[in-house]
Design goal:
With 282 residues, the chain is of the alpha/beta class. It has one domain: Divalent-metal-dependent TIM barrel enzymes (TIM Barrel, Alpha-Beta Barrel), CATH 3.20.20. It has an eight-stranded parallel barrel with strand order 1-2-3-4-7-8-9-12. The chain has a two-stranded antiparallel ribbon with strand order 5-6. Helix 4 runs parallel beside helix 5. The longest helix is centred in the last third of the chain and has 26 residues. The chain is globular. The N and C termini lie far apart (38 Å).
Length: 282
C-alpha cells in the first residue's frame, strides 16, 4: 500500500467553483489545491474543462465530505471506487476524510462527532482500512470540531490516536479545529498538538471560525484566521517541522487578493521556520 506523505508541498488553497473561472487563466502562487470529490466528479461542460486545465498543471488532493466513516450504515464502496477513478483521471495525489459521520438511514447534511468509545474505535478503524484497501493507498483522517460528546469514554486525543493507530492511516491535522475544541471543551491546544503522532501527518488545514460567545466558537470556514490559530500553526511547525498546509474558506469568500493574503501568511510562517532551522544548522 502506497504512503502519500510529502506528495504535495507548501501552502495550498481549497478550490471553489465560485473563483475557478477567475484563476484558470491567471493562477495564483499556490503550492497545491484541494477539492471535495463529491462536488467535482460529475462536473462537465465549461467548468469541467476548466477543472481539467487546473489538474493538468497543479498538484491536487481530495478531501471527502460524505463518506460517513463513523456511521452504522453500510460503507458506500461504489462511491469510494468512483473517487479512485476520479483521482486516476486527474492524477490527484491523495484522499482525506473526516473522523465523523453524516448519515443514518439517509444523509444528515452535517458532520456529527463519533462517540469517543472503544467500540467506535474498532468500528471506524475497520471502515478506514476497507477504504484504504479499495483505493490501494493510505488516506488521511481529519480531527473534527464537535460541540457535544455523548457517551464519552475517553478524551478526544486518545480516541483520535487509537483510531489512527488501529486503522494504520495518515493524519490531516486541522489547526483551527484543535483551537475551537480547546476553547469549547476546556483543554490545552498545545497539549493536544504534542500528543499527535507527528510521523503520520500528511498535511494540515487552517481556517477561520465564528465567535458565538467567549467560551463557544463555531467552526465555519467563513472568516479570517485569528492570531491564536496562526500561533498554533507556528507551534506545530516548531514541534514537527513544516508540513503542507491548506487554507479552507467555504463561506463569505472574499476577493482572491484577500485569500492569497492568508495563503501568503502560511508561506511566511513556513519560511520563518526554514530560516530559523537553517541558522540553527549553520
Amino acid at each position: 500500500m502506497d504512503t502519500n506523505q510529502n506528495l504535495v508541498h507548501g501552502a495550498g488553497l481549497g478550490l471553489r467553483r465560485s473563483f475557478l473561472n477567475q484563476i484558470v487563466d491567471m493562477p495564483p502562487a499556490v503550492g497545491f489545491y484541494e477539492v471535495a470529490p463529491e462536488n467535482w466528479i460529475t462536473l462537465g461542460g465549461r467548468l469541467g474543462k476548466q477543472f481539467r486545465a487546473m489538474t493538468e498543471r497543479f498538484d491536487f488532493v481530495c478531501h471527502g465530505l460524505s463518506l460517513s466513516l463513523g456511521s452504522t450504515d453500510p460503507l458506500d464502496e461504489a462511491f469510494v471506487r468512483a473517487v479512485k477513478q476520479f483521482m486516476r483521471d486527474h492524477q490527484i495525489k491523495f484522499y482525506s476524510e473526516h473522523l465523523s459521520y453524516c448519515s443514518k438511514d439517509g444523509h444528515l447534511y452535517d458532520l456529527m462527532p463519533i462517540p469517543f468509545t472503544t467500540e467506535a474505535v474498532s468500528h471506524v478503524a475497520a471502515r478506514i482500512r476497507r477504504v484504504q484497501d479499495i483505493l490501494e493507498q493510505k488516506i488521511a483522517i481529519e480531527n473534527v470540531s464537535y460541540y457535544a460528546a455523548p457517551g464519552q469514554e475517553m478524551a478526544e486525543i486518545d480516541f483520535f490516536n487509537a483510531v489512527i493507530a488501529e486503522a494504520d492511516c495518515d493524519i490531516l491535522i486541522d489547526i483551527n479545529n484543535i483551537y475551537v475544541n480547546s476553547v469549547n471543551h476546556g483543554y490545552d491546544a498545545e497539549a493536544f498538538l504534542k500528543a499527535v503522532p507527528a510521523q503520520r501527518i500528511a498535511y494540515a488545514h487552517i481556517a477561520g471560525h465564528y465567535v458565538e460567545a467567549e467560551d463557544f466558537l463555531v467552526d465555519t470556514h467563513g472568516a479570517e484566521i485569528i492570531d491564536p490559530v496562526w500561533k498554533l500553526l507556528g507551534k506545530a511547525y516548531e514541534l514537527y517541522g513544516v508540513f503542507p498546509t491548506l487554507l479552507e474558506r467555504d463561506f463569505n469568500i472574499p476577493a482572491m487578493t484577500e485569500l492569497m493574503r492568508e495563503v501568503n501568511t502560511i508561506k511566511t510562517i513556513q519560511q520563518a521556520w526554514h530560516q530559523q532551522h537553517a541558522q540553527q544548522s549553520a
